[in-house]
Amino acid sequence: MPNDPAAFLLAVRGRDAVTARHLLEAGTLADAIDKDGNTALGLAAANADTEMCELLLDNGADPNRRSRGGLTPVMLAVDAGSVGAWHTLRSRSPHLWLCDDLGRHVIDIARAWLDVDPVIELLRRLGATDSDEVAVERRPAPDEGLGSAEAIRVSTPHGWASVQTGHAAILTELEEAHGIRVPFAELMSRGLAFDDPDHVGRWFPAMALAARVDDETFNLASETLTSSSDARQRHFAAEILLMYALYNEDETAIRLEGETVELLRRRAVEEQDPTVLERVIAGLGLHHQVRSIPEILLHARHLEAEIRRAVAAALHQLVQADHTEAITALLSLAGDKNANVRRATATTLSDINADTPTIREALALLLDDTDPDVVLEAARGLGLREDPRADQPLMHAFLRIPPGEERGLSRAYDVVRQWSFERFCDVRDSLI
Question: Domain total for the chain?
Fold first, then answer.
């Protein structure tokens, strides 16, 4: 394939990473510029194409080279609301203090999207009129392991424009980078603009508050969780406390984590809203304090399946062999009518440091489950206990791993890797 800048820019615009890579290998410069003054990296950033951004940067593209309007690639990624592209560019230490031709910094571009209807803004940019026929397409943005977001495309007879809804998340990180301490209430309001708890616009403000680990933030989160009449606010506070002080080891963090656990234990008894209660129970599990087990077990027979699943998950690596009440509850949950509950229970039972006939039989019964993930977790638990009933289910799961997927990350591999080659072959051949 010859060096062809025009074809290269066309590939960048079309999100064709395979062709772009071949052209780069043929000698095309990663910093190619189109006739309108847009750099290849700027086009990829504006296109919210994280893979292409990484490819171009790896091949020498300048993260600070401007496109028309004085826009750097990171400005274009931020304007596109792409958290993935923003993270990729940020990892290359771009100059965040640069201004575009309008005098805007990166943080100004992110902030301008807050409280703005993205469809209306895209229509404005397209110059649409009231008489124009408009088509709006909404779909999940590509999953890049950072949380969920929405991709919105607006089309008119004159053209189309698109954006992702990651601006609130990016703004939160930019504020952190600039040392701006945004008030608790403002970050909570920003996060609650998104209904989905996994949305980056909600998750990143919660993480920013959880990272503060100080009395002011803990007290505000505590007050919100215990006193707010708004369940959505309580849910947000529980998300903060779920992570609070977990990853810090200084004296203040240790003290605040202890206070957090006691607060969550009290709230586990008092909270009535199932969505909030699920977060409280999840928090007790993550904080990993054995003294929380009684409050977790209070909800083992809750009417809501998601609460029962949270109980089973929270007990993971928390229950010891001698905790009869907890193991009894898990054995009951293993027969739950909900597959998600059974799956979480099988995982917890698998990893309990105990090997009793009762636990083995509970796991063995799950080998006939209708959910393949439940079967895999149960087989893993039996396999870790060297129970031969797990051999064929584990081999089935291992052989079903799609080509190209990392086998070492498979739950089946936890056990299969411990087998001798002869045993592996024997079990494999028994399936034929």
Answer: 2
